[in-house]
Amino acid sequence: MTIKPGIASLSLLALIAFAAPASADTLLIERAEQLNQAAVPARGASMAQVEARYGAPAQRLDPRGGQKSQWPTINRWSYPQFTVYFEKDRVIDVVANQAVSSEIGPKPAVR
């Protein structure tokens, strides 16, 4: 049983291409993993605690949800480095913002 040289070299080329490390794109998720957890609001903190520690947000985005009792109102506060999501008056999540437009990450918030 012999392998033709063209197929063997093509297979080797494909293996090398997939083994090469990804290049140059900065992913938002990579930067978010490096974000110091002490530098962002903790889950469960109140709106008053967040504002006392981090100051007034750069922007208070329009609330979403709340049309039914099963759908809580979600408030969003935008700071330069991150956006805080609140359910009622408690932090449920903090998301890192894009640092530059070339960084790959989520789409801008719906206004």
Task: Describe this protein's structure.
The longest helix is centred in the first third of the chain and has 15 residues, at 5-19. The protein has helices at residues 5-19, 28-34, 47-54; strands at 59-64, 74-78, 82-87, 90-96. The chain is elongated, with a radius of gyration of 22 Å. The protein is built from 3 helices and 4 strands. The protein has a 4-stranded antiparallel sheet with strand order 1-2-3-4. The chain starts with a helix and ends in a 15-residue tail after the last strand. 27% of the residues lie in helices and 22% in strands. The chain has 111 residues and is α+β, with helices and mostly antiparallel strands.
Describe what is shown at a glance.
This protein is of the alpha+beta class and 111 residues long.
Low-confidence stretches: none
Q: Which bin fits the share of residues in helices?
A: 25-40%
Can you count the beta strands? 4
SS element count, helices: 3
Q: What is the C-alpha radius of gyration, as a whole number of Å? A: 22 Å
The major pleated sheet works out as: 4 strands, antiparallel
Q: What percentage of amino acids are in beta strands?
A: 15-25%
Average residue pLDDT: 77
Order of helices and strands: HHHEEEE
**Which structural class matches the secondary elements?**
alpha+beta
Shape: elongated
